[in-house]
Structures are given as C-alpha cells and as structure tokens.
Amino acid sequence: MEIINSSWRARDFKFALFDFDGTISLIREGWQNIMIPMMIEIIRGTQTNETPQSITEIVSRFVSELTGRQTIYQMIRLAEEVRKRGVEPETPLIYKKRFHSRLNAHIAARITGLEKGAISPERLLVPGCLEFLNALKTHGLTLYLASGTDLKDVERELRLLGIAKFFGHHVYGALDNYQDFSKERIVQKIIRDSGGSSNNLIGFGDGYVETQCIKNAGGLAVGVASNEANPNGAIDESKRCTLIRSGADIIIPNFQDSGTLLNHIIG
Hints:
- The protein is built from 10 helices and 7 strands.
- It is α/β, with parallel strands linked by helices.
- The chain folds into 2 domains: about 170 residues, 3-Layer(aba) Sandwich (Rossmann fold), CATH 3.40.50; about 80 residues, no CATH class.
- It has a 7-stranded mixed sheet, sandwiched between helices.
- It starts with a strand and ends with a helix.
C-alpha cells in the first residue's frame, strides 16, 4: 500500500463504490490488447501518412484517459479520429459491436469455464477482493458497483464470480441509451443517499474516470493498480501513474493486505 495523499484521515465510511473490470474482475483481462490494435487498424485504413508509432501513441493515450467510461465513448473518439483524417467513419455503435465481437471471442473460454465449474471464481477475481468485500459488509458499508461495461454483461459476470450478493440492486453499467448512465451520476446518487455528505464515501478503481469522480465529489479514492496478467505479481506501473495523475489518495496492487488497508481507511 502506497499513501499518496498523507493529509487524509480515517473516517466513518458508509458507502463504497467499486469499478468492475481490473478492480474486482479479471474476466476481461487483455481487453486493451483487443481494442487498441482494432483502432490502430481502422485509423491506418484512412491511408494517413502518420507512422504506426504515432498512431499507437494517440490511441493508447485516449483509451487510457477514457478507461472507466462506457465503451461507446472510446468508440466516439475513434470516429472523431477517423473523421479528422478526411474519411467518413462508421457509427460508434458499429465500432463498439466490432470490438465486442473480438473481445467476446477472447474471453469465451473464461466464461464457459466459470459456467461449467472448470474455472474457480477465485482465479478470475483480483486477489483478496472477496475477503475485502466481506470485511466492508461486516463493517456495515453499503456497496455500489459502476462499470463502463454493458450492464447485462456485468450482472452475468457478477453472478458467475459469486459476488452479486455484495452489491444487491446497487449495480450500474453501460446502457444502450448511453446518456442515461455515467459514474458521475452514480456518485451523486450515493451522496444523495447519504444525506448530502461525501465524507462517508470511498471509491475503488483502476482507471482515471472513477478516481477523478470520487475526488471531485470529495470522497477518498483508492487506486487499484492491478497487474491483470499477473495479479499476484508486481504493481502495474502504467496504472499507478494514471491513478496518481487522476488524484488517488492511496495506491494498492490488489486486496491481499486487506487488514492493513482497513486499518488505514477505517481505523
């Protein structure tokens, strides 16, 4: 655990907001390696004179900045980049469907393994998160989950991982009408539920968007810099840098040292 903001103090937290992919779930590990090459392929198809390296840098930057928002926003940005290069893009929804087709092929064996019991849920959970969720519930916190992944997929994967019970009906995800959902809205809902105070709100996420939402609202932001390909290994340095830039108060690699983390945030 790395303390970034030493001025914070343990509080009587009542509400905790979690991101899903990369924060709790490893089912979609490797999604960036599906999305970024697809986008590079599409932009190069505009016959631009840019080098592959410069296109990769542009795409990697905006994918990272938009991680945590609904997938459609990354596809909206892709369409904008195509249009900048003098080509009329396909609709963001078509790009999203193309990405989902490739991603679903990538994760199909994991989903099937969970459904048939060939893969234990613990293998596809960020280490320590099950114990940590239990501990937060024991301390009386109400847990919320908000994901940029489509809501129907999030709900199914929560059930497959055996952790839907922790969040009850407080599960939110991307909608076909994407303007009806954002993590900012969920944060504001939690604050309303708490009587208008953000002092009892804590957030956990591995991306820029959810971290900034929590910080902008005045809550405590814990950045989960998980190494999804090797979750028991070293911290993901790229995530760590992004989380620090977005205002994380604490950085953790996973939830394995949940006792220490609880002592620091709750006291």
